[in-house]
Amino acid sequence: MGFLTLEGVSKVYGGLAAVRDVDLAVARGEFVSLLGPSGCGKTTTLQMIAGLVEPTAGRIGLDGRDITREKPNRRGLGVVFQSYALFPHMTVAENVAFGLEMRKVPRAERDRRVAEMLALVHLANLAERYPRQLSGGQRQRVAIARALVIAPPVLLLDEPLSNLDAKLREEMQFELRRIQRSVGTTTIMVTHDQAEALSISDRVVVMEAGRMTQIDAPYRLYEQPATAFISTFVGKMNRLAGVWGDGGVAVAGTVLASAPADVAAGTAVTAWIRPEKLHLRPMGEGRLAGRVASRFFLGGHWLLTVGTEAGDILVSVPNTGEEPAREGEPIGLDWEPASLRVEAGAGAAA
Ligand code: ATP
Asked: Which residues form the ABC transporter domain (predicted)?
């Protein structure tokens, strides 16, 4: 079904499994990110797709063909790595033309495709510059143009934006998505930046210790994280250790929610809720009393830490133009019951 498929793919390095039995089916034209902490196996997975690392087990398919043992140049995939080394002695246009020259594409067609590609990445006016005369973001776009000009079936990106400063990086995220949409190339990107993965991708694959633990659309990953790790790695999350008692789920003696039906009384549970699902109320109102411990202004919203019986709780307050409660002020916290999730197990609390 998938255009690019991984079936039971593993990579073992001297007894250590870098990638463990992963299955993934990427649709034609899809933009998929591999997201996870350092060492979880993202790059190894990408390199196996590129053909630079041979899987220990499993099968990789491309458009119905088994490419598991195929040489990288036969696969013809576009690859952009973090360092995206451009050829320093070649102009922007020559860098982009390189792959076409290698493939012996006739001059006229080559020039046409290079011009098309430079227009696409908004670099047409810099065609004759050398890499050293470009900004980081411009170099990055040359690298993307160079990878895309050969019209690869799949574009592989390994932390392509990590050398850029925060603002440029954000701009390039939009650029990358725009470029990918307009050419429709199936794209797999490795990143450890959750905001980047959520904003660009059609689907995100979260990797933990070599396994793919959730493969989902960004909003589903955020709303329904499959593991405790994902709930805190993707966005901010309050995780509160509690116990299911007679009256429901109690955290530090305060009943926060009714308990899940299948949990025995006395069982340790974890209650979790996103900061933006909590609402500030005047003291004495709401479901839980607290006192503002710290307050940060972040432009679009304020981030408050509220000390409560149940522990410190992060609260995101939208910026309405008015200041919310100050540090030291007693307040109440409220939420829609459905926003507070409860799961069995104390170990789940981060
Ligand atoms: P990062 O974000 O830090 O690049 P990653 O998620 O891309 O991390 P990988 O580079 O895929 O992780 O590495 C996964 C695991 O495999 C790590 O424990 C790493 O040390 C190990 N590993 C990777 N390449 C090799 C190799 N050539 N020989 C031995 N071990 C390796």
From this structure: 4-234
Q: How far, in Å, is the centroid of ligand 1 from the Cα of 44?
A: 6
Say how far residue 280 (Cα) sits from the centre of its chain.
Answer: 30
Is residue 38 in contact with ligand 1, taking CB distance under 6 Å?
yes
Which among 254, 289, 268, 246 has a CA at the least distance from the CA of 342? 268
Domain interval for residue 40: 4-232
User: Ligand 1 within 6 A of 35 CB?
Assistant: no
State the ipTM, two decimals: 0.94
Does one domain contain both 99 and 163?
A: yes
User: For the chain (length 350 residues), average pLDDT per consecutive 10?
Assistant: 94 95 97 96 96 96 95 90 83 94 92 92 92 89 90 92 80 87 93 93 97 97 91 90 78 73 79 94 92 96 94 95 95 91 66
Which protein residue's CA is at the shortest distance from atom 17 of ligand 1? 39
CA distance 308 to 152: 55
Asked which of 207, 232, 257 is the last residue of a domain, the reply is 232
Atom nearest to 192 CA in ligand 1: 2
